[in-house]
Amino acid sequence: MTSPILVGKNARRLTAPSVIPGFGLTFGYTLIYLGLIVLFPLATLIWWSSGLGLSGLYAIASEPRVAAALRVTFFISFAAAVVDLFFGLIVAWVLTRYDFAGRRLLDAFVDLPFALPTAVAGISLAALYSPSGWFGAPLAGYDIKIAFTRLGILVALIFIGLPFVVRTVQPIISELEVELEEASATLGAGRLQTVLRVMLPPLAPALLTGLALAFARSIGEYGSVIFIAGNIAYVSEIAPLLIVVKLEQYDVAGATGIATIMLAISFAALLLINLVHAWSRRKFGRV
Amino acid sequence: MRFPEAFADTKTIKRGASIRIEGVEQDFGAFPALRDVSLDIQSGELVALLGPSGSGKTTLLRVIAGLNSPDRGRVLFDGENATGLPVQDRHVGMVFQNYALFKHMTVADNIAYGLKVRPRRTRPSRSAIRTRVAELLQFVQLDGLGARYPAQLSGGQRQRVALARALAIEPRVLLLDEPFGALDARVRKDLRRWLRDIHKQTGLTTVFVTHDQDEAMELADRVVVLNEGRIEQIGTPEELYDRPASPFVISFVGEAVALPVAIADGQVRFGGRELHIDTHGLRSGPARVFFRPADIAVAAEGNGDLEGRVESLRRTPAGVRATIAIDGYDQTLEIDSPLERSASLGGRVPLSLAKARIFPADENGGYVNAGDGI
Amino acid sequence: MSEIAITSAYERRAKYRPVTEDSPLARYALIATAVLFLAVFLLAPLAIVFVEAFSKGIEPFLAAFDDPDALAAIRLTLLVAALAVPANLVFGLAASWSVAKFSFPGKSVLVTLIDLPFSVSPVVVGLVYVLVFGGQGLFGPWLAAHGVQIIFAVPGIVLATIFVTFPFVARELIPLMQEQGKVEEEAALTLGASGFKTFLTVTLPNIKWGLLYGVLLCNARAMGEFGAVSVISGHIRGLTNTIPLQVEILYNEYNNVAAFALAVLLAGLALVTLGLKTFLEWRHADALSGSVRRH
Asked: What confidence score (pLDDT) does residue C14 get?
């Protein structure tokens, strides 16, 4: 073990005795790298916003344009997460429980929103839903406009959030015990009753986690939204875009204020996830 | 089955180092894993560390290996202090509980590993390593399996690869952690005999950890019984069986029945009866008598230490096995007796103790060591 | 005659649906819903990229790559990934080694902090670095005085990309190495291997597929990152534009074919990543961490 490193000395006492070398070096590097790249810059944000104070934050948040953007971001993110919850459950169920031609391929494509750069998703969604696009043109016949409206934001956020729900729920569905279904059937439950009363309740924590993850991601999403949203102030302008706008106007304080509020919402969602985990572990023994 | 020539040469192998452990203590957080453990292992000895899970036996083995560094105390190999010696320089052959074979290497590469990682000046040539691996494969009866991967082997085969890998570095001592734990009963029996043979041929000081008393008794020259981080007793299998030093040892090694008794006026009383057991000068007070099921028998009428009622009778090849409820005691015990002395179901029988040990209760209600009974 | 009766009775019984299966009607309805949903929301956006890129034929598509700005964007994207991915690779190895092979208080806090960048909006990441290095930022005046440019320059883009892709390798390796324990390393040490040799010959081969998996996802995100880089780059053509930023510029100039042509590069990268990822999950599932994957 390399002892000259500062943490190396403390590490001896910090860790349980081990012959495996390298704790001081790797732990020290981890802390320094994490501190420099992530924690210090984030602390700078907190420091800036603490300069604003709560009243300053409130003043920024109640600016009509900021308030509108936060509302749009919050509510549409939530709506998109709920849509993802519903269809994500169906997709996860179908991919896990049924076998059909093309299932593997479809399963692989669920991760597309993770892999496809957001700017690409943004311009292709805009192209699809523009009045002359594949989906936009037929919908225009019914007087439904998606691109450059709030619905466009919804579509983009549904795209972004879907894998979070599917990938969180899928493993839990595959772990459902067949015996439970059979027991339910022997007790006289019909198939629908079995699904609703026996199989879905254990999925609740995973569904809630997926919902929160999709929501948290949607709050901060930028690239896939701005191309399709139209970005009309007070109507279809999202909070992350407003940060960019404020920065371009050299309003660093305003940008910092919005960023702080967004961070708070994301962390609240993450906290919710942890609470859900803790709750379900207490109640069901595991997640 | 012969040990490869290269190892039989006393110039290349230091035959079994002696191991001395002095006052070793190890804490894991608030939980003391080893408490003041001292132990001498002679060169070439085969020693078992026996105890229930959590008794500290694996921790002690890892301290000898250099995988754990003790908080206090010393470990000496051949009289030299090895406490601070890094594990790489200890030259211990360690066989891990689930073998810890390198999954991504072939059997041959696994065995050769310890030779290949040596610094260049002490590393044998490629051809020498190949020869050594071939010898070892033959030695552990796995000729021709060198190109396989661990996943393609049976449990018993993996165990032998692990042993060959440990032997390849010409260890001074051989350490095995639950060497047969993961194997099924039949393979275990074969491998036990095989380990004995290997020990005989290599003459290596060998220490193995087990929770199975049969295994310890059958294989080891001496057995170290551990409980809650302390050594309860060190002795040959005979000594452990015939002269257990503590209630823990008598209960853990072999079957034992315990009777709560009282000592008064140099007499041992159970219920209203007097047991014919020497008190060894123990003070008056509560105590406990331990005896093996084999040491109690149906006595001649009026001669018994105890009396009981026959609850059930079962025929065995040699005679009859009776389940007897002892008067004044809430447990039953089983007694084998020859046919001619069999009792009738529901009848009362006198019982006599051939051999027993008595331990007084100490102030805490526990039991401390005492001398032999009878 | 009776034989026939028995056979048909068996046949009829064989057709009974197991109680654990949904009715065919429900099954088809659910499959149709899922397939339709995925087709509309996932496959169509992917398909339109290629359709738009080739809408005017192959020539205009190829012409898009003749542009020096496009080539500069490709070069910069490769450079950024070549710096950010190895940096996070080394960090991932260090973090997983210290977390998985040792026990120390506060470990779960550390693991949570490593995951933190995933819950920070890319735009906020960009802003945060502006606050540190920008003109009004913490080190801004000092940097300006010494003529060091971080914001609106390549270093800033690299830093923001590192932040955004920070957890990918570590979060794949930590559970994997925790599952594997440390017994093989201990075995190697008893056989005389040094710590570094143990890492190279025992640990690394055991984690190589998980490592590749993490690097793959890290790289895809590094090359495709938009929000954070957008805030910090200053959009200087031919200098600080990565491929995604160049796509945005071309799209805003109504140069659809060129925008989608560059987007084809990124979509291709996404497809290759998905393909390799699926291959690893299928072929080397046991060599990856069993934890739920959500990236």
From this structure: 44
Greater confidence (C16 vs C209) lies with C209
Q: Do B94 and C190 touch (CB under 8 A)?
A: yes
**pTM, rounded to two decimals:** 0.80
The distance of B222 to chain C (nearest Cα, Å) reads: 25
**Is B88 in contact with C192 (Cβ distance < 8 A)?**
yes
Decide if the complex's ipTM is over 0.85: yes
What's A130's domain CATH number? 1.10.3720.10
* pLDDT tens column, A74-99: 999 999 999 999 999 999 999 999 98
> Residue A147: pLDDT band by 50, 70, 90 thresholds?
confident
Tell me, yes or no, whether A19 lies in a domain: no
Which residues span the domain enclosing A58? 52-284
All residues at 6 or more sequence positions from C45 whose CB lies less than 8 Å from its CB, including other chains? A116, A121, A124, A125, A128, A159
Q: Which of A19, A58, C16, A254 is closest to B89 using CA atoms? A: A19
Partner residue facing C251 (CB), from A220, A221, A227: A227
Domain count of the fold of chain A: 1
Chain C contact present for B88, CB below 8 A? yes
CB of A64 within 8 Å of any CB in chain B? no
A and C: number of Cβ contacts within 8 A: 300
Here the tokens at position A71 are 């509302």
When the pLDDT of each residue in chain B is averaged and rounded to a whole number, the result is 83
CA A94 to chain centre: 22
How far apart are alpha carbons C231 and A240 in whole angstroms?
A: 10
Identify the CATH homologous superfamily for domain C59-292: MetI-like (1.10.3720.10)
Structure tokens at B325: 């409820």
pLDDT band at B31 (very low <50, low <70, confident <90, very high): confident
List the domain boundaries for chain C.
1-53, 59-292
Instruction: Say whether residue A17 is in contact with chain B using an 8 A CB cutoff.
Output: yes
Q: Which of residues 27-46 of B touch A (CB under 8 A)?
A: 28-29
